[in-house]
Design brief:
105 residues, Alpha-Beta Plaits, two-stranded antiparallel sheet, 2 helices, 6 strands, elongated
């Protein structure tokens, strides 16, 4: 079961997060998301537990729990959506500035 962990303190390590979740069962993987350019943590990550029951127990036990003076937001991870955002600026169908390649005058 994949679990989303939000409101992570910037100084928490993947090993510390693994230890928090290990009290509820076997942890398959831990991934703290980092900024692509600076390499600093973005404040959230994902933990994968080997079974659904252990994952649900971890969610119930850790949601709202303080870790380094910050209350964690822990819930089941949602699958990625097909809509990746990206905005519509310049999209020809949006009626934005590039409404096609016709001349204005």
């Amino acid at each position: 079961m994949k679990i989303y962990v939000g409101n992570l303190p910037s100084e928490v390590t993947e090993q510390e997060l693994r230890e928090e979740f290990a009290t509820f069962g076997e942890v398959a993987s831990v991934n703290i998301i980092k900024d692509r350019y600076s390499g600093r943590p973005r404040g959230f990550g994902f933990v994968e537990m080997t079974s659904v029951s252990q994952g649900q127990a971890a969610i119930a036990g850790l949601n709202g729990k303080a870790l380094k003076d910050q209350a964690l937001a822990v819930n089941a991870a949602r699958p990625p959506s097909d809509n990746r955002g990206g905005g519509s600026y310049g999209n020809r169908r949006s009626g934005g500035p590039n409404r096609g390649w016709q001349r204005r005058y």
